[in-house]
Write a structure and sequence with these properties.
The complex is a heterodimer of chains A (177) and B (418). Chain A is mostly beta strands and 177 residues long. Chain A has a single domain, classed as Immunoglobulin-like, CATH 2.60.40. Chain A has one helix and eleven strands. In chain A, strand 4 and strand 5 form a beta hairpin. The chains are: A mainly beta (177), B alpha+beta (418). The interface between A and B is medium-sized, with 34 and 33 residues. Chain B: Belongs to the DyP-type peroxidase family.
Chain lengths: 177, 418
Protein backbone atom coordinates (compact mmCIF):
# COMPACT_ATOMS: atom_id res chain seq x y z
CA UNK A 1 0.00 0.00 0.00
CA UNK A 2 1.15 3.46 -0.87
CA UNK A 3 1.49 5.82 2.02
CA UNK A 4 1.90 9.54 1.60
CA UNK A 5 4.39 10.86 4.07
CA UNK A 6 7.24 12.70 2.50
CA UNK A 7 5.30 15.47 0.82
CA UNK A 8 6.65 18.54 2.57
CA UNK A 9 10.30 19.30 2.92
CA UNK A 10 9.68 18.97 6.61
CA UNK A 11 8.16 15.56 6.36
CA UNK A 12 10.79 14.57 3.87
CA UNK A 13 13.41 15.46 6.42
CA UNK A 14 11.40 13.69 9.08
CA UNK A 15 11.29 10.56 7.04
CA UNK A 16 14.99 10.74 6.35
CA UNK A 17 15.53 11.16 10.07
CA UNK A 18 13.29 8.19 10.77
CA UNK A 19 15.13 6.03 8.31
CA UNK A 20 18.41 6.97 9.89
CA UNK A 21 17.13 6.48 13.37
CA UNK A 22 15.52 3.16 12.78
CA UNK A 23 18.99 1.71 12.73
CA UNK A 24 20.23 3.51 15.84
CA UNK A 25 19.71 2.13 19.29
CA UNK A 26 18.41 4.79 21.62
CA UNK A 27 19.83 7.74 19.75
CA UNK A 28 17.88 10.81 20.68
CA UNK A 29 19.49 13.10 18.18
CA UNK A 30 18.87 12.51 14.50
CA UNK A 31 21.76 14.76 13.60
CA UNK A 32 24.00 12.29 15.43
CA UNK A 33 23.09 9.91 12.69
CA UNK A 34 25.29 7.00 13.73
CA UNK A 35 24.27 4.08 11.64
CA UNK A 36 24.59 1.21 14.03
CA UNK A 37 24.05 -2.40 12.98
CA UNK A 38 20.41 -2.93 12.10
CA UNK A 39 19.23 -4.61 15.23
CA UNK A 40 16.26 -2.36 14.80
CA UNK A 41 13.67 -5.02 14.29
CA UNK A 42 13.36 -5.54 17.99
CA UNK A 43 13.07 -1.84 18.73
CA UNK A 44 9.73 -0.21 19.29
CA UNK A 45 10.78 2.92 17.42
CA UNK A 46 11.58 0.91 14.31
CA UNK A 47 8.00 -0.19 13.89
CA UNK A 48 6.51 3.30 14.18
CA UNK A 49 6.13 5.85 11.43
CA UNK A 50 4.63 9.26 11.98
CA UNK A 51 2.42 10.72 9.28
CA UNK A 52 0.73 14.06 8.85
CA UNK A 53 2.70 15.57 11.71
CA UNK A 54 2.30 19.28 12.51
CA UNK A 55 2.69 21.66 15.41
CA UNK A 56 0.37 24.55 16.17
CA UNK A 57 2.03 27.96 15.84
CA UNK A 58 2.49 29.88 19.09
CA UNK A 59 4.36 33.00 20.13
CA UNK A 60 5.19 31.73 23.59
CA UNK A 61 3.92 29.51 26.37
CA UNK A 62 2.73 26.17 25.13
CA UNK A 63 1.57 24.36 22.06
CA UNK A 64 1.19 20.80 20.83
CA UNK A 65 2.30 18.25 18.27
CA UNK A 66 -0.34 16.38 16.26
CA UNK A 67 -0.13 13.56 13.75
CA UNK A 68 -0.72 9.88 13.14
CA UNK A 69 1.48 7.23 14.76
CA UNK A 70 1.36 4.16 12.59
CA UNK A 71 2.48 0.97 14.29
CA UNK A 72 3.46 -1.82 11.94
CA UNK A 73 5.04 -3.94 14.65
CA UNK A 74 3.97 -5.36 18.01
CA UNK A 75 2.25 -3.40 20.78
CA UNK A 76 4.31 -0.36 21.80
CA UNK A 77 3.98 2.24 24.51
CA UNK A 78 4.85 5.86 23.85
CA UNK A 79 6.16 6.98 27.20
CA UNK A 80 7.54 10.45 26.62
CA UNK A 81 8.70 13.19 24.32
CA UNK A 82 11.34 15.91 24.24
CA UNK A 83 12.23 18.84 22.01
CA UNK A 84 14.74 21.66 21.89
CA UNK A 85 11.84 23.96 21.09
CA UNK A 86 10.38 23.73 24.58
CA UNK A 87 11.46 23.17 28.17
CA UNK A 88 9.15 20.23 28.54
CA UNK A 89 7.05 17.89 26.45
CA UNK A 90 4.28 15.74 27.91
CA UNK A 91 1.78 13.23 26.62
CA UNK A 92 -1.69 14.60 27.16
CA UNK A 93 -5.19 13.33 26.83
CA UNK A 94 -8.35 15.40 26.72
CA UNK A 95 -11.21 14.39 28.92
CA UNK A 96 -14.59 15.86 29.68
CA UNK A 97 -14.82 17.20 33.21
CA UNK A 98 -17.97 18.93 34.39
CA UNK A 99 -19.03 19.60 30.84
CA UNK A 100 -15.77 21.15 29.64
CA UNK A 101 -12.93 19.51 27.79
CA UNK A 102 -9.78 19.54 29.83
CA UNK A 103 -6.29 18.30 29.18
CA UNK A 104 -4.24 16.29 31.56
CA UNK A 105 -1.13 14.20 31.45
CA UNK A 106 -1.72 10.63 30.35
CA UNK A 107 -0.54 8.32 33.09
CA UNK A 108 1.53 5.47 31.72
CA UNK A 109 1.77 6.94 28.25
CA UNK A 110 -0.08 6.07 25.04
CA UNK A 111 -0.58 2.43 24.11
CA UNK A 112 0.06 2.00 20.39
CA UNK A 113 -1.57 -1.28 19.47
CA UNK A 114 0.03 -3.58 16.91
CA UNK A 115 -1.04 -2.79 13.36
CA UNK A 116 -3.03 0.25 14.39
CA UNK A 117 -2.79 3.98 13.86
CA UNK A 118 -2.89 6.19 16.93
CA UNK A 119 -3.98 9.73 16.18
CA UNK A 120 -2.79 12.83 17.96
CA UNK A 121 -5.32 15.53 17.18
CA UNK A 122 -6.80 18.76 18.52
CA UNK A 123 -9.42 18.07 21.13
CA UNK A 124 -7.98 14.65 21.84
CA UNK A 125 -4.61 13.04 22.52
CA UNK A 126 -1.56 15.16 21.76
CA UNK A 127 2.05 15.82 22.69
CA UNK A 128 2.09 19.01 24.72
CA UNK A 129 5.10 21.31 24.36
CA UNK A 130 5.46 23.59 27.37
CA UNK A 131 7.76 26.53 28.02
CA UNK A 132 8.56 27.37 24.42
CA UNK A 133 12.14 28.48 23.85
CA UNK A 134 10.93 31.01 21.28
CA UNK A 135 8.10 31.72 18.90
CA UNK A 136 7.03 28.90 16.61
CA UNK A 137 5.89 30.54 13.40
CA UNK A 138 3.95 29.06 10.53
CA UNK A 139 6.35 27.41 8.11
CA UNK A 140 8.99 26.70 10.77
CA UNK A 141 9.97 23.12 11.49
CA UNK A 142 10.09 21.54 14.92
CA UNK A 143 11.87 18.32 15.80
CA UNK A 144 10.24 16.31 18.57
CA UNK A 145 11.84 13.13 19.88
CA UNK A 146 9.39 10.45 20.89
CA UNK A 147 10.46 7.89 23.48
CA UNK A 148 9.04 4.41 23.70
CA UNK A 149 8.73 1.90 26.52
CA UNK A 150 11.89 0.02 25.55
CA UNK A 151 13.94 3.24 25.56
CA UNK A 152 14.13 3.52 21.80
CA UNK A 153 13.44 6.94 20.29
CA UNK A 154 12.17 8.45 17.10
CA UNK A 155 12.65 11.99 15.80
CA UNK A 156 9.66 13.64 14.20
CA UNK A 157 10.21 16.77 12.14
CA UNK A 158 6.89 18.60 11.94
CA UNK A 159 5.99 21.80 10.12
CA UNK A 160 4.37 24.57 12.13
CA UNK A 161 0.90 25.67 11.04
CA UNK A 162 -1.44 28.42 12.13
CA UNK A 163 -4.48 26.89 13.79
CA UNK A 164 -7.39 28.55 15.56
CA UNK A 165 -8.54 25.52 17.53
CA UNK A 166 -6.82 23.31 20.11
CA UNK A 167 -7.73 25.68 22.92
CA UNK A 168 -8.73 23.16 25.56
CA UNK A 169 -8.44 24.19 29.18
CA UNK A 170 -6.05 22.77 31.68
CA UNK A 171 -7.28 21.30 34.88
CA UNK A 172 -6.21 24.48 36.65
CA UNK A 173 -8.19 26.60 34.23
CA UNK A 174 -5.37 28.21 32.27
CA UNK A 175 -6.01 28.43 28.59
CA UNK A 176 -3.49 26.32 26.81
CA UNK A 177 -1.81 26.31 23.41
CA UNK B 1 -11.17 13.03 12.08
CA UNK B 2 -10.60 9.34 12.35
CA UNK B 3 -7.55 8.28 10.46
CA UNK B 4 -6.90 4.68 9.62
CA UNK B 5 -3.54 3.16 8.80
CA UNK B 6 -2.55 4.29 5.37
CA UNK B 7 -5.26 6.91 5.57
CA UNK B 8 -4.02 8.34 2.32
CA UNK B 9 -5.81 9.97 -0.55
CA UNK B 10 -5.71 6.63 -2.26
CA UNK B 11 -7.68 4.78 0.34
CA UNK B 12 -9.99 7.73 0.91
CA UNK B 13 -10.79 7.83 -2.75
CA UNK B 14 -11.44 4.14 -2.62
CA UNK B 15 -13.87 4.82 0.19
CA UNK B 16 -15.39 7.60 -1.80
CA UNK B 17 -15.83 5.28 -4.70
CA UNK B 18 -17.40 2.71 -2.45
CA UNK B 19 -19.90 5.23 -1.17
CA UNK B 20 -20.65 6.40 -4.64
CA UNK B 21 -21.15 2.84 -5.76
CA UNK B 22 -23.86 2.45 -3.16
CA UNK B 23 -25.50 5.68 -4.26
CA UNK B 24 -25.16 4.70 -7.89
CA UNK B 25 -26.85 1.41 -7.23
CA UNK B 26 -29.73 3.25 -5.61
CA UNK B 27 -30.08 5.69 -8.47
CA UNK B 28 -29.93 3.04 -11.13
CA UNK B 29 -32.69 1.12 -9.44
CA UNK B 30 -33.95 -0.63 -12.53
CA UNK B 31 -30.51 -1.80 -13.45
CA UNK B 32 -29.86 -2.71 -9.83
CA UNK B 33 -33.04 -4.76 -9.55
CA UNK B 34 -32.17 -6.62 -12.71
CA UNK B 35 -28.64 -7.21 -11.54
CA UNK B 36 -29.73 -8.43 -8.14
CA UNK B 37 -32.37 -10.65 -9.70
CA UNK B 38 -29.74 -12.06 -12.01
CA UNK B 39 -27.34 -12.55 -9.14
CA UNK B 40 -29.89 -14.48 -7.13
CA UNK B 41 -30.77 -16.66 -10.08
CA UNK B 42 -27.37 -17.04 -11.66
CA UNK B 43 -25.04 -17.35 -8.69
CA UNK B 44 -21.52 -16.10 -8.24
CA UNK B 45 -20.66 -15.17 -11.82
CA UNK B 46 -23.73 -13.05 -12.21
CA UNK B 47 -23.09 -11.43 -8.84
CA UNK B 48 -19.55 -10.56 -9.89
CA UNK B 49 -20.68 -9.05 -13.16
CA UNK B 50 -23.40 -7.11 -11.39
CA UNK B 51 -20.83 -5.73 -9.00
CA UNK B 52 -18.55 -4.81 -11.88
CA UNK B 53 -21.44 -3.10 -13.64
CA UNK B 54 -22.33 -1.13 -10.51
CA UNK B 55 -18.72 -0.08 -10.03
CA UNK B 56 -18.45 1.04 -13.64
CA UNK B 57 -21.64 3.09 -13.32
CA UNK B 58 -20.36 4.65 -10.12
CA UNK B 59 -17.07 5.48 -11.77
CA UNK B 60 -18.90 7.26 -14.56
CA UNK B 61 -21.15 9.08 -12.16
CA UNK B 62 -18.35 10.52 -10.02
CA UNK B 63 -15.75 10.94 -12.73
CA UNK B 64 -15.84 14.74 -12.47
CA UNK B 65 -15.20 14.81 -8.75
CA UNK B 66 -12.52 12.13 -8.82
CA UNK B 67 -10.37 13.64 -11.54
CA UNK B 68 -6.90 14.73 -10.48
CA UNK B 69 -4.39 17.05 -12.12
CA UNK B 70 -0.80 16.42 -10.96
CA UNK B 71 0.63 19.18 -8.80
CA UNK B 72 4.35 18.51 -8.99
CA UNK B 73 6.23 19.16 -12.19
CA UNK B 74 8.58 21.48 -14.00
CA UNK B 75 5.70 23.86 -14.69
CA UNK B 76 2.81 24.85 -12.50
CA UNK B 77 -0.54 23.32 -13.32
CA UNK B 78 -3.50 25.54 -14.12
CA UNK B 79 -2.14 27.07 -17.30
CA UNK B 80 -1.89 24.25 -19.83
CA UNK B 81 -4.60 22.42 -17.88
CA UNK B 82 -7.83 22.43 -19.90
CA UNK B 83 -9.83 25.16 -18.17
CA UNK B 84 -11.97 23.92 -15.32
CA UNK B 85 -15.54 25.12 -14.88
CA UNK B 86 -14.78 27.40 -11.94
CA UNK B 87 -11.92 29.76 -11.21
CA UNK B 88 -11.03 31.98 -8.34
CA UNK B 89 -8.24 34.53 -8.47
CA UNK B 90 -7.17 35.95 -5.13
CA UNK B 91 -4.56 38.68 -4.73
CA UNK B 92 -2.90 39.22 -1.38
CA UNK B 93 -0.79 42.04 0.01
CA UNK B 94 2.14 41.09 2.19
CA UNK B 95 2.10 42.43 5.73
CA UNK B 96 4.69 45.16 6.32
CA UNK B 97 6.92 43.02 8.53
CA UNK B 98 7.12 40.07 6.12
CA UNK B 99 10.69 39.61 4.90
CA UNK B 100 12.33 37.09 2.61
CA UNK B 101 12.50 34.44 5.34
CA UNK B 102 8.82 34.88 6.10
CA UNK B 103 7.96 34.70 2.41
CA UNK B 104 9.82 31.41 2.27
CA UNK B 105 7.91 30.05 5.26
CA UNK B 106 4.62 31.16 3.74
CA UNK B 107 5.33 29.60 0.36
CA UNK B 108 6.36 26.30 1.93
CA UNK B 109 3.10 26.11 3.84
CA UNK B 110 0.92 27.17 0.92
CA UNK B 111 2.71 24.93 -1.56
CA UNK B 112 2.31 21.95 0.77
CA UNK B 113 -1.38 22.72 1.20
CA UNK B 114 -1.75 22.86 -2.58
CA UNK B 115 0.24 19.67 -3.10
CA UNK B 116 -2.15 17.80 -0.84
CA UNK B 117 -5.51 19.32 -1.62
CA UNK B 118 -5.09 19.12 -5.39
CA UNK B 119 -4.55 15.39 -5.00
CA UNK B 120 -7.71 14.87 -2.97
CA UNK B 121 -5.92 14.77 0.38
CA UNK B 122 -6.63 17.01 3.33
CA UNK B 123 -3.90 19.57 4.02
CA UNK B 124 -2.27 19.40 7.45
CA UNK B 125 -4.51 20.91 10.12
CA UNK B 126 -7.51 21.08 7.79
CA UNK B 127 -10.52 21.55 10.04
CA UNK B 128 -12.91 20.28 7.34
CA UNK B 129 -10.90 17.41 5.85
CA UNK B 130 -13.98 15.79 4.32
CA UNK B 131 -14.28 18.76 1.96
CA UNK B 132 -10.81 18.05 0.59
CA UNK B 133 -11.57 14.60 -0.76
CA UNK B 134 -13.11 15.62 -4.09
CA UNK B 135 -10.34 17.18 -6.18
CA UNK B 136 -12.42 17.70 -9.35
CA UNK B 137 -9.26 18.66 -11.31
CA UNK B 138 -8.34 21.26 -8.72
CA UNK B 139 -5.25 23.27 -9.56
CA UNK B 140 -3.57 25.94 -7.45
CA UNK B 141 -1.27 28.27 -9.37
CA UNK B 142 0.90 30.81 -7.58
CA UNK B 143 1.87 34.16 -9.04
CA UNK B 144 4.21 36.82 -7.69
CA UNK B 145 3.64 40.54 -7.97
CA UNK B 146 6.38 43.11 -8.17
CA UNK B 147 6.17 43.73 -4.43
CA UNK B 148 6.79 40.11 -3.45
CA UNK B 149 9.76 39.69 -5.78
CA UNK B 150 11.38 42.84 -4.43
CA UNK B 151 10.67 41.87 -0.83
CA UNK B 152 12.22 38.47 -1.51
CA UNK B 153 15.37 40.19 -2.75
CA UNK B 154 14.98 38.81 -6.27
CA UNK B 155 15.36 40.46 -9.63
CA UNK B 156 12.03 41.34 -11.18
CA UNK B 157 11.62 41.04 -14.94
CA UNK B 158 11.13 44.48 -16.48
CA UNK B 159 7.51 43.74 -17.37
CA UNK B 160 6.54 42.95 -13.76
CA UNK B 161 4.79 46.24 -13.05
CA UNK B 162 1.38 47.76 -13.72
CA UNK B 163 0.47 47.85 -17.41
CA UNK B 164 0.79 51.22 -19.13
CA UNK B 165 -2.36 53.29 -18.85
CA UNK B 166 -4.75 52.72 -21.74
CA UNK B 167 -7.34 55.24 -22.86
CA UNK B 168 -10.17 52.77 -22.55
CA UNK B 169 -9.28 51.84 -18.97
CA UNK B 170 -11.58 52.80 -16.14
CA UNK B 171 -9.63 50.94 -13.49
CA UNK B 172 -11.16 50.70 -10.05
CA UNK B 173 -8.76 50.56 -7.15
CA UNK B 174 -10.37 47.42 -5.73
CA UNK B 175 -9.41 45.24 -8.70
CA UNK B 176 -5.75 46.12 -9.18
CA UNK B 177 -2.31 44.87 -8.30
CA UNK B 178 -1.32 42.53 -5.49
CA UNK B 179 1.86 40.92 -4.12
CA UNK B 180 0.78 37.28 -4.29
CA UNK B 181 -1.72 35.64 -6.60
CA UNK B 182 -3.54 32.44 -5.75
CA UNK B 183 -5.34 31.11 -8.79
CA UNK B 184 -7.62 28.17 -8.07
CA UNK B 185 -9.47 26.20 -10.69
CA UNK B 186 -11.73 23.15 -10.32
CA UNK B 187 -14.80 21.58 -11.81
CA UNK B 188 -16.60 21.78 -8.47
CA UNK B 189 -17.42 25.04 -6.67
CA UNK B 190 -17.33 23.52 -3.18
CA UNK B 191 -13.83 22.25 -3.88
CA UNK B 192 -12.77 25.75 -4.91
CA UNK B 193 -14.35 27.31 -1.82
CA UNK B 194 -12.69 24.92 0.59
CA UNK B 195 -9.27 25.10 -1.05
CA UNK B 196 -9.43 28.90 -1.04
CA UNK B 197 -10.43 28.88 2.61
CA UNK B 198 -7.57 26.57 3.55
CA UNK B 199 -4.97 28.60 1.66
CA UNK B 200 -6.22 31.90 3.02
CA UNK B 201 -6.18 30.61 6.60
CA UNK B 202 -2.55 29.65 6.11
CA UNK B 203 -1.68 32.94 4.42
CA UNK B 204 -3.40 35.03 7.07
CA UNK B 205 -0.40 35.60 9.31
CA UNK B 206 1.64 36.80 6.31
CA UNK B 207 -0.72 38.66 4.04
CA UNK B 208 -4.20 40.09 3.67
CA UNK B 209 -6.71 39.71 0.85
CA UNK B 210 -6.57 42.59 -1.60
CA UNK B 211 -9.20 41.31 -4.01
CA UNK B 212 -10.91 38.08 -4.94
CA UNK B 213 -12.52 37.42 -8.30
CA UNK B 214 -14.62 34.45 -9.30
CA UNK B 215 -15.28 33.18 -12.78
CA UNK B 216 -17.11 30.39 -14.50
CA UNK B 217 -17.39 28.53 -17.74
CA UNK B 218 -19.69 25.74 -18.88
CA UNK B 219 -20.05 22.88 -16.38
CA UNK B 220 -17.73 19.90 -16.73
CA UNK B 221 -19.07 17.52 -19.33
CA UNK B 222 -21.62 20.01 -20.65
CA UNK B 223 -19.85 20.42 -23.96
CA UNK B 224 -17.12 18.69 -25.91
CA UNK B 225 -13.67 19.16 -24.42
CA UNK B 226 -11.59 21.62 -26.38
CA UNK B 227 -14.62 23.78 -27.20
CA UNK B 228 -13.94 27.50 -27.32
CA UNK B 229 -15.59 29.33 -24.46
CA UNK B 230 -18.62 31.47 -25.23
CA UNK B 231 -18.60 34.73 -23.30
CA UNK B 232 -21.74 36.45 -22.02
CA UNK B 233 -22.02 38.46 -25.25
CA UNK B 234 -22.61 35.08 -26.88
CA UNK B 235 -19.30 35.20 -28.74
CA UNK B 236 -16.88 32.35 -29.02
CA UNK B 237 -14.01 33.88 -27.07
CA UNK B 238 -10.48 32.58 -27.56
CA UNK B 239 -10.65 30.97 -31.00
CA UNK B 240 -7.13 31.98 -31.93
CA UNK B 241 -5.08 30.50 -29.13
CA UNK B 242 -1.80 28.59 -29.17
CA UNK B 243 -2.33 24.92 -28.36
CA UNK B 244 -0.76 23.67 -25.12
CA UNK B 245 1.91 21.09 -25.72
CA UNK B 246 3.03 22.51 -29.05
CA UNK B 247 6.39 24.13 -29.78
CA UNK B 248 4.51 27.29 -30.70
CA UNK B 249 2.88 27.39 -27.28
CA UNK B 250 6.13 26.70 -25.48
CA UNK B 251 7.87 29.56 -27.25
CA UNK B 252 5.04 32.01 -26.70
CA UNK B 253 4.27 31.17 -23.09
CA UNK B 254 7.19 29.73 -21.16
CA UNK B 255 9.88 31.99 -19.88
CA UNK B 256 13.40 31.16 -21.00
CA UNK B 257 15.06 32.35 -17.80
CA UNK B 258 16.14 35.96 -17.43
CA UNK B 259 15.97 36.32 -14.46
CA UNK B 260 16.91 32.70 -13.89
CA UNK B 261 14.35 32.06 -11.14
CA UNK B 262 11.59 32.45 -13.72
CA UNK B 263 12.88 29.78 -16.14
CA UNK B 264 9.98 27.47 -16.86
CA UNK B 265 7.53 30.04 -15.58
CA UNK B 266 5.53 32.65 -17.39
CA UNK B 267 3.62 35.86 -16.84
CA UNK B 268 -0.06 36.38 -16.25
CA UNK B 269 -2.13 39.42 -17.00
CA UNK B 270 -5.55 39.49 -15.39
CA UNK B 271 -7.93 42.13 -16.65
CA UNK B 272 -11.43 42.51 -15.29
CA UNK B 273 -13.44 43.62 -18.29
CA UNK B 274 -16.96 44.84 -17.63
CA UNK B 275 -19.35 43.99 -20.45
CA UNK B 276 -22.32 46.25 -21.06
CA UNK B 277 -24.94 43.62 -21.67
CA UNK B 278 -27.70 46.23 -21.74
CA UNK B 279 -25.93 48.20 -24.45
CA UNK B 280 -25.18 45.02 -26.36
CA UNK B 281 -28.89 44.22 -26.31
CA UNK B 282 -29.49 47.22 -28.54
CA UNK B 283 -27.19 45.89 -31.24
CA UNK B 284 -28.70 43.52 -33.78
CA UNK B 285 -26.83 40.47 -34.98
CA UNK B 286 -25.31 42.05 -38.12
CA UNK B 287 -23.92 44.86 -35.97
CA UNK B 288 -22.60 42.41 -33.38
CA UNK B 289 -20.91 40.32 -36.05
CA UNK B 290 -19.41 43.41 -37.66
CA UNK B 291 -17.99 44.54 -34.33
CA UNK B 292 -16.22 41.26 -33.80
CA UNK B 293 -15.52 40.32 -37.42
CA UNK B 294 -16.90 36.84 -36.80
CA UNK B 295 -20.21 35.04 -37.15
CA UNK B 296 -21.85 34.60 -33.78
CA UNK B 297 -23.12 31.08 -34.40
CA UNK B 298 -20.05 29.32 -35.73
CA UNK B 299 -17.39 31.79 -34.64
CA UNK B 300 -16.10 31.70 -38.23
CA UNK B 301 -14.55 34.87 -39.61
CA UNK B 302 -17.05 36.80 -41.73
CA UNK B 303 -15.07 35.57 -44.74
CA UNK B 304 -15.16 31.90 -43.70
CA UNK B 305 -17.42 29.01 -42.80
CA UNK B 306 -15.81 27.29 -39.83
CA UNK B 307 -14.50 28.64 -36.53
CA UNK B 308 -10.85 28.07 -37.28
CA UNK B 309 -10.87 29.29 -40.89
CA UNK B 310 -8.25 31.91 -41.52
CA UNK B 311 -9.78 35.37 -41.99
CA UNK B 312 -9.40 37.04 -45.39
CA UNK B 313 -8.78 40.66 -44.62
CA UNK B 314 -8.56 41.50 -48.34
CA UNK B 315 -12.09 40.35 -49.14
CA UNK B 316 -14.42 43.20 -50.07
CA UNK B 317 -18.17 43.60 -50.05
CA UNK B 318 -19.94 44.29 -53.38
CA UNK B 319 -19.76 47.99 -52.60
CA UNK B 320 -16.05 47.83 -51.88
CA UNK B 321 -15.76 47.79 -48.10
CA UNK B 322 -13.72 45.13 -46.30
CA UNK B 323 -15.90 42.18 -45.27
CA UNK B 324 -14.02 42.10 -41.99
CA UNK B 325 -14.02 45.74 -40.94
CA UNK B 326 -10.81 47.51 -40.14
CA UNK B 327 -12.45 48.51 -36.84
CA UNK B 328 -13.40 44.93 -35.90
CA UNK B 329 -11.98 43.17 -32.89
CA UNK B 330 -10.66 40.36 -35.06
CA UNK B 331 -8.76 42.74 -37.34
CA UNK B 332 -7.43 44.93 -34.57
CA UNK B 333 -6.25 42.13 -32.33
CA UNK B 334 -4.32 40.45 -35.16
CA UNK B 335 -0.63 41.32 -35.36
CA UNK B 336 1.63 41.00 -38.36
CA UNK B 337 4.44 40.07 -35.95
CA UNK B 338 4.30 36.31 -35.26
CA UNK B 339 5.65 36.67 -31.72
CA UNK B 340 2.98 39.18 -30.72
CA UNK B 341 0.59 36.53 -29.56
CA UNK B 342 -0.66 35.44 -26.15
CA UNK B 343 -2.40 32.47 -24.57
CA UNK B 344 -5.85 33.33 -23.30
CA UNK B 345 -7.62 31.39 -20.55
CA UNK B 346 -10.47 33.60 -19.50
CA UNK B 347 -13.61 33.16 -17.44
CA UNK B 348 -17.02 34.83 -17.31
CA UNK B 349 -18.13 36.70 -14.26
CA UNK B 350 -21.66 37.64 -13.25
CA UNK B 351 -22.11 39.41 -9.93
CA UNK B 352 -24.92 41.17 -8.11
CA UNK B 353 -26.09 44.20 -10.11
CA UNK B 354 -25.68 47.63 -8.63
CA UNK B 355 -28.64 49.83 -7.71
CA UNK B 356 -31.32 49.75 -10.36
CA UNK B 357 -29.37 47.66 -12.84
CA UNK B 358 -29.92 44.08 -13.87
CA UNK B 359 -26.37 42.99 -14.57
CA UNK B 360 -22.78 43.32 -13.44
CA UNK B 361 -21.16 40.91 -15.83
CA UNK B 362 -18.04 40.59 -17.83
CA UNK B 363 -14.90 38.70 -18.53
CA UNK B 364 -11.95 37.81 -16.37
CA UNK B 365 -9.44 38.10 -19.16
CA UNK B 366 -6.45 35.99 -18.15
CA UNK B 367 -3.56 35.79 -20.54
CA UNK B 368 -0.19 34.11 -20.32
CA UNK B 369 2.89 35.09 -22.26
CA UNK B 370 6.64 34.86 -21.85
CA UNK B 371 7.00 38.63 -21.95
CA UNK B 372 4.19 41.05 -21.17
CA UNK B 373 5.84 44.06 -22.79
CA UNK B 374 6.73 42.26 -26.00
CA UNK B 375 3.51 40.29 -26.45
CA UNK B 376 0.56 41.64 -24.49
CA UNK B 377 1.18 45.37 -24.57
CA UNK B 378 1.37 45.81 -28.39
CA UNK B 379 -1.92 43.96 -28.84
CA UNK B 380 -3.60 45.99 -26.13
CA UNK B 381 -2.27 49.23 -27.61
CA UNK B 382 -3.87 48.44 -30.95
CA UNK B 383 -7.17 47.55 -29.31
CA UNK B 384 -6.94 50.71 -27.24
CA UNK B 385 -6.55 52.84 -30.38
CA UNK B 386 -9.43 51.23 -32.24
CA UNK B 387 -11.73 48.29 -31.65
CA UNK B 388 -15.46 48.62 -32.17
CA UNK B 389 -15.99 46.18 -29.32
CA UNK B 390 -14.63 48.85 -26.94
CA UNK B 391 -18.06 50.43 -27.25
CA UNK B 392 -19.44 47.73 -24.95
CA UNK B 393 -16.39 46.61 -22.97
CA UNK B 394 -14.52 48.48 -20.23
CA UNK B 395 -11.40 47.28 -18.40
CA UNK B 396 -12.04 47.97 -14.72
CA UNK B 397 -9.26 45.88 -13.16
CA UNK B 398 -5.70 45.05 -14.08
CA UNK B 399 -2.89 43.06 -12.51
CA UNK B 400 0.37 41.53 -13.68
CA UNK B 401 2.06 38.58 -12.04
CA UNK B 402 5.15 36.49 -12.63
CA UNK B 403 4.23 32.82 -12.54
CA UNK B 404 7.22 30.89 -11.20
CA UNK B 405 8.02 27.38 -12.38
CA UNK B 406 6.57 24.33 -10.65
CA UNK B 407 8.34 22.21 -8.07
CA UNK B 408 9.22 18.59 -7.51
CA UNK B 409 7.94 16.51 -4.62
CA UNK B 410 9.63 17.77 -1.46
CA UNK B 411 10.09 21.24 -2.94
CA UNK B 412 7.85 24.28 -2.99
CA UNK B 413 6.69 26.73 -5.60
CA UNK B 414 8.87 29.81 -5.31
CA UNK B 415 11.99 27.93 -4.24
CA UNK B 416 13.87 29.28 -7.26
CA UNK B 417 13.25 32.83 -5.98
CA UNK B 418 13.42 32.67 -2.21
Amino acid sequence: MQRHTAITPALGAALAALLLLSGCAGTADAAGGETAAPTAAAEAAASITVEEAWVKAADDGMTALFGDLVNEGADVTLVGAATDAAEMAELHETVETDGTMQMRQKEGGFELAAGETFSLEPGANHVMLMGLAGPLQAGDEVTVTLEFGDGSTLDVVAPVKDYAGANEQYDDGHEAH
Amino acid sequence: MAREPGGSGFSRRQLLLGGAAAAGAGAASVLGAQAIGGALAGGANAAASAAAEAAAAAARETAVGEAIVPYHGARQAGIETPPQAYARYIALDLAPEVDAAAIRRMLRVLSDDAARITQGRAPLADTEPELALMPARLTVTFGFGQGLVERAGGTAPTWLRPLPAFGIDRLRPEWNGGDLLLHLGADDPVTVAHAARMLLKDARSFASVRWSQQGFRRAAGAEASGSTMRNLFGQLDGTVNPAPGTADFDELVWHAGDPAWLAGGTSMVLRRIAMDLDGWDRVDRPGREAAVGRKLGSGAPLTGEREHDEPDFEALTPVGFPVIGDFSHLRRSRSEVPGERIFRRGYNYDESPADGGISDAGLLFASYQADVDRQFVPIQRRLDELDLLNEWTTPIGSAVFAIPPGCAEGGYVGETLV
